[in-house]
Specification:
The chain has one domain: 3 Solenoid (UDP N-Acetylglucosamine Acyltransferase, domain 1), CATH 2.160.10.10. Helices cover 19% and strands 31% of the residues. It is built from two helices and 20 strands. It has an eight-stranded mixed β-sheet with strand order 2-5-8-11-14-17-19-20. Strands 1-4-7-10-13-16 form a six-stranded parallel β-sheet, with helices on one face. A hairpin with a 4-residue loop joins strand 19 and strand 20. It is globular and about 65 Å long.
Length: 207
């Protein structure tokens, strides 16, 4: 009887904590987005406290029914970083409808577009920039995001599933309905209706 009571109390406090984090995180995050004039759609759910780093002349768009999990209490798969969304001056980050993302980082210095019904597993990263120049002389001069730093848009098609711990780099286009296996390094574009995985990423099979 005592064991049952202990388990009941544990589950009750856990459910209460999850509910509080969900409600407060959702409200606070939407207030932050509102303060940055971010256009977010209906029924957007933000669990936890993502980190938003947005420049005034950047564009961040979140479509209807999107879900952002940014707490260890949501989608607990063993990695618990908060989501980070960074959009540089003049850059765009756009989520379509019904996008789900957990504990991941997206950094746009040019343009990152994510289509409808896309699922992004935990601990994924999207970088549309090399961050630093290739030339060591410019790197040593601390020229972060200089005009010689390479950057190129990322585009993710509708119905794509990106497995946990994957890295999507600049210039990548992933065609609709395709799947990226967990832990993949994606440095080149992927056709529609295919499964790719690995580091370096390789074709697995047609869907």
């Amino acid at each position: 009887m005592l064991k049952i009571l202990v388990r009941f109390i544990f589950r009750l406090q856990l459910k209460t904590k999850v509910l509080i984090i969900s409600k407060i995180g959702n409200l606070f995050s939407k207030l932050v987005l509102w303060s940055y004039n971010v256009n977010f759609g209906n029924n957007v759910k933000i669990n936890g406290f993502p980190k938003f780093i947005l420049k005034k002349d950047s564009r961040f768009i979140i479509g209807d029914d999107c879900r952002i999990n940014s707490s260890k209490h949501f989608n607990p798969i063993g990695r618990y970083p908060n989501c980070v969304f960074r959009v540089y001056s003049g850059a765009t980050l756009k989520f379509g409808k019904n996008v789900g993302i957990s504990a991941s980082t997206i950094i746009s210095s040019d343009s990152i577009t994510i289509g409808d019904n896309v699922l992004i597993g935990a601990n994924c990263v999207f970088y549309d920039t090399d961050f630093h120049p290739i030339s060591y002389t410019k790197r040593s001069g601390n020229e972060f995001q200089s005009t010689s730093t390479r950057k190129s848009p990322i585009s993710i098609g509708d119905n794509v599933f990106i497995g946990a711990h994957s890295t999507i780099l600049k210039g990548v286009i992933i065609g609709e309905n395709s799947i990226i296996g967990a832990g993949s390094l994606v440095t080149k574009s992927i056709p529609s209706n295919q499964i790719w995985a690995g580091n370096p990423i390789k074709f697995i099979k047609e869907i």
